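Progress report, Aim 2. The chain analyzed during this reporting quarter is listed below.
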Amino acid sequence: MAVFNYKALGAGGAVVTGELTAGDRGEALRQLDKKGLQPVKVAEAKVVAKPAKTDKTAARRAPQVKAKPEGLVKASPKVKAKDKDTKEVPEGPLKMKSKEVVYFTEELSDMLAAGLQLEPALRAMEAREEEGNIKEISQRIRNLVRDGTSFSQALKRVSPSFGPLYCSLAAAGEASGALDTILRRQAHYLKTIQELRGRITLALIYPAFLILSGIGVSIIFVTKLIPQLTGLLKGTPGSEMPIGVRVMIGASDFLRAWWIVILLIVLAGAIFFKAWKDAERNKPAWDRIKLKLPLYGNVIRGRFYVQFLETMANLVGNGLPLLRSLELTRDAAQNIHLRSSMDEMIEMVGDGRSLSSTMIRSQIFPPLLIDMVAVGEQTGKIDLALRRAAERYDKELDGALQKVMAMVMPAVLLLMASLVGTMAYAMISAIFQTINNLGGA
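Predicted structure tokens for the chain:
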């Protein structure tokens, strides 16, 4: 046990000083927490041992010394239990649902915007009545922040659900002093993604039923109706099987004979593709391919532009140097190909070039965006120019997402119409061929 001198703030804001006995600094902080005190400074006191005096008075002070350790022994199991819970922070990360991440971000950003410091804000979230992961996450993060860990590092250690992008943006907010703004924009972004997923799920329900119905109809056609018509045509004198029916029968026979091989090939191809995509050396190539995909590539680019502009506007607007702002913005980028292009931009800015000229050389930004940034550099209000550009491209990103969603339903309907229409045509051709053969007989 050691003696710690502390300086803390009481409930009314009064400064309280004193000393307490604890096993380590973390335990001392927890004791202050139990007393409702917010620690400002906690340091171990330097105690000089006096062995001679202790030896002379050992007999007289024996009862007191004996009684004091008894109280400590009784309290030690509780302290150890609490220590055990606190040490679970890095060892047992909690997984959160996407809704819980959004709620956590919204609540914390609102409290920080209201003027609360980070630790009191987390304490207030920890005291919420509703049980769940948010309360436990807030407690674990507060314990780490109180012990000196940065907020972004605490997020990484407590839950993998925050993700690299979230943690990088949190680090940018800590560095710029605009953590509340960064979290508010991140909450808006997460809500947008969540709403998009919900809209896509709802939009795909009807096409999913269509696809399942089409598969069921195809199975009935191939296994029941077409074989019956084939038998009828073969039993009719002078009959000739239509080419459409012959093609469908051949495809059906092929699938029945080789479906296991085809399934294994598809599974092997999927496993190989996933292994190739997840390999570190292939991730830059896969990120380049994603940027070239129809519709989806435009969404990825638009998302990168909005994130780049918003993060840069917040960092530069809060006084961070341009070079440091670019480094933090690069760390928040998810696409490795785009991130490597930003590495070149950082080198050029470090050599003294302007942001707009480096954006031109990187060849990853559209001309209109570069022109808006160049105007901001000329007027000396680059943060406002970046924010206006972010609003513009946010609207364009929303339009691109709506376009992708609008294309899903027609594509599925066209596919199902082609499938069912082909089978219906083959059936009608077979029926007419049967009627003609019977009439000719």
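Confidence is low (pLDDT under 50) at residues 47-90. Strands lie at 2-9, 15-22, 38-44. These observations will guide the mutagenesis work planned for the next reporting period.
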